[in-house]
Structure formats: C-alpha cells, structure tokens
Amino acid sequence: MTQTLFVAGATGFIGTHFVAHALRAGYHLTATTRSQERADVLRAQGIEVIVGDLLTPGEWQHAAARADCVVHIAQPLTFGGKVTRQRAEDYRRERLKMDLNLLTTLMGSAGQRIVYVSGTSYYGDLGPDLHDESATPKPKGWGPYIVEALAQVRAFRERGLNVVEAFPGQIYGAGSWYGEMMAALLKGTRLVKLGTRDKAGSFMYVEDAGRAILHLAEHGATGERYFLVDDEPSTLAELARLSLAEYGLPLKRIRLPFFVLEWLLGPINAEGFAYENRLSNARLRATGFVPQYPTLAQGVPAAVAEMKKLGG
Ligand SMILES: NC(=O)c1ccc[n+]([C@@H]2O[C@H](COP(=O)([O-])OP(=O)(O)OC[C@H]3O[C@@H](n4cnc5c(N)ncnc54)[C@H](OP(=O)(O)O)[C@@H]3O)[C@@H](O)[C@H]2O)c1
Description:
The chain is of the alpha/beta class. The protein contains 12 helices and 15 strands. The protein has a single domain, classed as NAD(P)-binding Rossmann-like Domain (Rossmann fold, 3-Layer(aba) Sandwich), CATH 3.40.50.720. Helices cover 42% and strands 19% of the residues. It is globular. The structure holds NADP nicotinamide-adenine-dinucleotide phosphate (NAP). NADP nicotinamide-adenine-dinucleotide phosphate is lined by residues 8-15, 32-35, 38, 53-55, 73-77, 98, 117-119, 168, 170-171, 176-177.
C-alpha cells in the first residue's frame, strides 16, 4: 500500500527538494501551505493540499493525524535583510507555537513516524574538533532561539511520539541565504573576514538535504538525532570562492571588526560568521545514506548551474 506523507514546509527551500524526492519514490503526499498560489503549484505536482497555517488549528490537523509519516520542515522566515534580536525573538515564539500545534495534533496517532527538522546552530560553537550528535550544544546565531522548541520536542518524545530529529548544517543551493549571498557577491560585494583565519562550518547541498530527510523518514531511528552535513567541514570563504569560480570571478575579501558586521547584518547573522562547527555525518551514513554531493567541490557546480538556469 502507498505510504502517506504529510509535509509541513513543502514550499520552502529544503521542502521543495524533499517533495521532489518523495514524489519520485512513489509516496502519496499531503501538504499544507498558507498561500493559495503555492497550493496550486503543489497540486500541479500531484500533491493533495490543505491551505492552512500551523499557528492556527484547522483542517490540516486531520490530514496530519491520518498520515503514516509526518515531515516537519516548516519554520517562520529566517533569511532576508538584517536580523535583529526582536525578529529572532518573534521567530522563537512562532516556532514554539507551530510545533506545539502540530505535535499536539499527532499525540493520538499511535505508531506514526515524525521527522522533525531544526538546525545545527543549536550545537553552535564547538571549536576546532570534529563532533557527532552527542556533543554538548553551545547554541549560537539562531541556536538560542530554537533551544525551547527542541526541549518541547523532547517532552513530546517522552510522552510517546516517534520522533527522528534532523539537524541540517548550512544548506546551500539556488535560493535562501546562499542565493542572497551570491547575488551580493556577483554585484561586487566583498565577503567579510573576521580575525586571522576563517571559521570552519558544516555544509550540505540542498538536493542531498532533501534526499537525506526522506531517507531518515524511512530509515532513521526514532529518538535519534542526525546531522545533515557533508563528508568534510569547510568554510564560507571556500564556498564563496568555489561558487564565484563557476562564474570565472575571483573572491574579494574585506576585513571588518565584529561590531561593524553586527551593525550591518544584525547580531544573529553576525554571530553565524564568528563560530566554529565541524560536524560528522557518520551517523547519517551509518543508516545507509550516500550523499550525491559529499563535498563543496562536488555540490557547488550543481548549485551554480541551478542558479544560472533560474536566471541568477
Ligand atoms: N536553509 C538552511 O540553510 C537551513 C539550515 C539549517 C537548518 N534549516 C532548517 O530546515 C528547515 C527548513 O528550512 P528552509 O530554509 O527550507 O525554510 P524556508 O525556505 O524559510 O521555508 C519555510 C516553510 O515553512 C512554511 N511555513 C512558515 N510558516 C508557516 C506556518 N505558520 N504554517 C505553515 N507553514 C509555514 C512555509 O510555507 P508557506 O509560506 O508556503 O506557508 C515554507 O514552506 C527549518 O527547520 C530550518 O531551521 C535550514
């Protein structure tokens, strides 16, 4: 029998890729979006759509409760312009409420699998060593604003929900923060350098992230956490350098003190430049997941080709 997947966040940056993989794999998909226009786009792909808002109880709850598996990739908006602490605080509050409404809805559905997607900013500043999911989190950037949401998920797990937790690293691809960064770099903006050396981070191409979430829906262990990251950590400068090279352009840098970056980008995004986070995908790979683009060198040409196709 065809398995039914309920997706919250199907129209988002990662969700779009998740949905494409799930449809190819033969799942029956039900999704929710707040927009009639985006609902039409989903319907054209053969997805059953309920227009609704996770912040408000509604018809979407019946669809979520009936599904064999629920994939939660929805979040309030994060990227775009300067992120103030107030904006991050609004995100924290909204995210908690969206999650509470969804997880409460699922409490009666025994045996249903739930893939809950958050982010590695929760693990934050782990220093120069490679870490796995058992590391003690030191949330940075957006991280402090998802701590409560993750505690809430843990409480629901303890009350019996079968949750698999996915923690994507910095996900790049045509769109989202990477699209914004590339548009700025192509206009001639210089990439900021803080201090004497670039901080390492953990990346994954959005295609792999979408595929990994589907893989976890099928093979992830409930109660377990998984990093969605490449085989090797790298740096934002290397991502930018490889990306500009695809356009035949050199990377230009500018050294700025932290307070100037904070003034330009807001404290949340500025902090994202300032911490080190080298994460291992060993646990994800141990489930049988094989990334198609395991390093930036393999993923960036695909990301840039997609951007060029979309006119970027
Ligand atoms: N992008 C990254 O680099 C990255 C990195 C690490 C972790 N993550 C995590 O991955 C997940 C997805 O991120 P993303 O970048 O793909 O997000 P995104 O592009 O901002 O998409 C957000 C999605 O959430 C939906 N949504 C927002 N508010 C909603 C509400 N009140 N009710 C129902 N749906 C709502 C939106 O749907 P409509 O607007 O159509 O309603 C949209 O589909 C998040 O948990 C994020 O923290 C992302």
